[in-house]
Structure formats: C-alpha cells, structure tokens
C-alpha cells in the first residue's frame, strides 16, 4: 500500500469514499461507546472482592482501634504500604482516604497559602505563581492550578520524561515558577517512564530554580501498574533528592484507586517531616482522622502481594492495549498518517494525528457514537497548540466494545487525514 502522502488525487478520492462509507455504516449501528476516562473495568474491581470480607480484628499494629477517631497520618501498616509504592520509609508517608488528587490539591493550596516549611516561605508571597506542566499531561493537575489561580508554563514531554533542560532553564530564569507536575511511571497520557537521567535531573531541579520554595509534585499514580513482572524499575527520587539535598522540595503521591476500588481506596503523600507536618495541620482543620478501617483492610489485603495482585490486573488490561495497538497498526500504519505510544503498563495511549485534526476527529467520533476525552484536555486550559493529540483510555470497555470503538476511531483518523491532505497539507 502507498502512504497517504504518496497517493494521487484519484487514489485519495476512492480512499475517502471507502472510508466515508465504512464510517456511515458504523454510524448506522447507533453505537454508544466510551473511551473517555481511565476507569478500571468491572472485572478489575472484582479482583478486590476479598476486601469486603469481615475483619477478624479492628486493631492496627500499633494498638489503634481503627473504628475510632484519630491517627490523622494513618495506621502504620497503611503507611508502610504507601512507602512500598513510593520507595520511602513508612514514617515519611501520610496515608489518607480514597483520593490522592484531594491530597495534591491540599498540598498545592497549603504551599500557596501557609507554606510547606513552617518558616514563612509561601507561594502567595510572590506576585505571581506559576507551575511547569509537562505536556501532554493529566488534565486534573491543570484543573488544580486553574482553581487556585496558578498559571501554567508548558514543558514538552519526551519519551524520557519532561524536557529537563527546558524545565531547568524556565525554573532558573523566573522566581514565579514554584513547581512542576510529574507522572513518572506510565505517564498519563503518553505512558512513558522517566529515565534515570530524568529522575536525577528532577532531584537537582530545586537547586537550579530561582524560587527557594520550589516543589516537585511527583504523582506516581501508576507505580505498580506494569503489564509484565518484575515491573519496570523507576529510579528512587527520594534517595536522589537526599543526595542532592533537595528532599524538602518533594511531595510524592500514590493511591490504590486503580489497584482495588477507585472510589474506596487509600491515598498516600510522602516527603520530608516538614511536608507531613504542614499537611497534617491543613487536614486537621477539616478531618479528625481518615477511614482507618479501610486502611486496615487494604493493608491486610495487599501487604506482601502487590505484584501478584497487579499481575491479575495486567492479565485483564494487556489484551485491551494489544487490541488498541492492533487496530491502529492495521488501519493506519501503512498510510503513515498517525503515531501512537505502546505503553507496557498504566492506563493510556497517546495518539498523534496530523496537525489541526484532533478536534475534528473527536467530533467525527462523537457523531459516530464514540465518546473520547475532549481534544486538548491533556493541555492546560484545554489548548493543544498543534491540535494533534488524542488520549485513548482502553481500560473500562469490554474487549468487543473496545474493538468496535477503535474501528470507529481509526476510520475517523483516516477520514480527517485524507481531508487534511486534500486541503494541500
Ligand atoms: C496521573 C493520575 N493521578 C491521579 C489520578 C487520580 O488518583 P486518585 O483516584 O487517587 O485521586 C489519576 C486518575 O486517572 C491519574 O491518572
């Protein structure tokens, strides 16, 4: 087959007609498909059914009665679980309720209003506050910034992680740059894993920053979400930061949302004593203690068997990612009109289409009964400067629906690319 670029006008005509008629027949089926959000599928949730078994005792390792108030930092065994996910000691972990996003918001708001170091350093002392946002990235990080009036400065995401040379230059030249968002393993949405060089450069970034209150937001949401085991290792940011003397500038996050129940799991925040003290003070205003019964259940369910449990998730997710790859490859590879990531874990695939087509493709897909993450969502303010990025979230749909959805998407990409080509591109 010839690539789209090599096709003569007559070939483009017939390919457009064929693609349009395939899409018309798919539309006639009145499909109702959804690849818009990275939710665990029902059969993944069923893997954690044992969480609901009655507990034989509610007493935690340190004697805490988990049914009662208190222990804001969490019970020891839950903190140890967070430490295992984040590669730090249990004492450095805050174990909380079901949403790490909530903790991220709390840490960001606390950095802004009260400061994280108990010494008067706080972001709101500055006239303007900016954060570095590697793009494409996670839309809800951007929403936290927007909700708190924090401006965002884009940094390109490479296969190795954020472009660290650019991040360092931006942080060094502007004292209003106060932090950076990171999803270091199976990044949302590209699926990349930060290389050792990137993690080392990240650990040194606070030293290069002009701001003395710079914070690395290390959202390791997919720390254990490999498809093959043993999983791909990630360099230990905390150890590297200790070596660089920057550990007071880290806020690390993880959760069990995509390990057990997304609505009833545990969240973790780890960092220096100063960070935990600041977070504890902020949270104590609104909460006397987290759901420690859930913490105990999780610790008993997951301790010593994280990998075995995540292998069960992998068995369900891997075929879905393989199907995404297969449909995209079969439909688009020879035409050479798009590229996409092939992650070995996590929840997302990034699809790059010809410049200026992503928004139109998402609309075409919607008209054919397929809901996708809005184009531009992986960029601050929803603005994808090239309009060429689409996030695919294959986890929730059953395999047959995923296959149908991917066929719709592939035809939409094809049609938009042909029209883009015919417009003289
Ligand atoms: C990178 C990233 N961080 C955080 C979350 C949400 O985590 P939680 O459920 O712990 O709030 C998600 C969910 O998609 C995510 O992709």
* Gross morphology: globular
Supply the CATH superfamily name of the largest domain: Type I PLP-dependent aspartate aminotransferase-like (Major domain)
Distinct small molecules bound, one entry per kind: pyridoxal-5'-phosphate
CATH architecture of the largest domain: 3-Layer(aba) Sandwich
Strand content: 5-15%
The overall pLDDT, averaged over residues, is: 97
Number of individual domains = 2
The share of residues in helices is: 40-55%
CATH topology of the largest domain: Aspartate Aminotransferase, domain 2
What do you see in this structure?
It contains 13 helices and 13 strands. It is α/β, with parallel strands linked by helices and 425 residues long. It has two domains: 4-44 and 308-422, Aspartate Aminotransferase, domain 1 (Alpha-Beta Complex); 61-304, Aspartate Aminotransferase, domain 2. Strands 2-9-8-7-6-3-4-5 form an eight-stranded mixed sheet, sandwiched between helices. Strands 10-11-13 form a three-stranded antiparallel sheet. The chain has a two-stranded parallel ribbon with strand order 1-12. The protein starts with 8 loop residues before the first helix and ends with a helix. The model has no long low-confidence stretch (mean pLDDT 97). The chain binds pyridoxal-5'-phosphate. The site of pyridoxal-5'-phosphate has 13 residues, from helix 4.
């Amino acid at each position: 087959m010839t690539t789209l670029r090599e096709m003569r006008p007559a070939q483009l005509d017939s390919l457009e007609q064929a693609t349009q008629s395939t899409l018309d027949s798919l539309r006639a089926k009145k499909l109702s498909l959804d690849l818009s959000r990275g939710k665990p599928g029902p059969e993944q949730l069923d893997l954690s059914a044992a969480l609901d078994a009655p507990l034989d005792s509610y007493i935690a390792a340190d004697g805490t009665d988990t049914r009662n108030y208190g222990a804001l930092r969490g019970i020891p065994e839950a903190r140890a679980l967070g430490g295992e996910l984040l590669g730090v000691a249990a004492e450095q972990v805050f174990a909380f309720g079901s949403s790490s996003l909530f903790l991220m918001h709390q840490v960001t708001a606390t950095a802004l209003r009260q400061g994280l170091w108990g010494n008067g350093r706080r972001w709101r002392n500055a006239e303007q506050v900016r954060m570095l946002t590697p793009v494409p990235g996670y839309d809800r990080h951007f929403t936290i910034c927007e909700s708190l009036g924090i401006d965002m400065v884009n940094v390109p995401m490479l296969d190795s992680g954020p472009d660290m040379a650019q991040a360092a230059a931006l942080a060094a030249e502007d004292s209003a740059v106060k932090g950076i968002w990171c999803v270091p393993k199976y990044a949302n949405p590209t699926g990349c894993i930060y290389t050792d060089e990137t993690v080392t450069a990240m650990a040194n970034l606070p030293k290069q920053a002009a701001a003395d209150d710079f914070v690395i937001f290390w959202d390791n949401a997919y720390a254990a979400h490999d498809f093959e085991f043993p999983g791909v290792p990630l360099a230990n940011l905390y150890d590297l930061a200790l070596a660089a003397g920057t550990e007071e500038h880290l806020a690390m996050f993880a959760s069990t949302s995509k390990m057990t129940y997304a609505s009833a799991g545990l969240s973790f925040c780890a960092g220096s004593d100063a960070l935990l003290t600041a977070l504890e003070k902020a949270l104590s205003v609104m909460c006397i203690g987290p759901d420690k019964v859930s913490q105990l259940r999780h610790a008993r369910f997951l301790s010593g068997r994280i990998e075995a449990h995540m292998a069960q998730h992998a068995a369900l997710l891997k075929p879905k990612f393989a199907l995404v790859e297969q449909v995209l490859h079969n439909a688009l590879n020879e035409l050479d009109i798009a590229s996409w990531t092939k992650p070995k874990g996590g929840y997302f695939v990034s699809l790059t289409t010809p410049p200026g087509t992503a928004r139109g493709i998402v609309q075409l897909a919607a008209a054919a009964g397929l809901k996708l993450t809005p184009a531009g969502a992986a960029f601050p303010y929803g603005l994808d400067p090239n309009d060429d990025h689409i996030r695919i979230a294959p986890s929730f749909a059953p395999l047959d629906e995923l296959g149908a959805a991917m066929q719709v998407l592939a035809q939409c990409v094809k049609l938009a690319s042909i029209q883009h080509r015919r417009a003289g591109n």
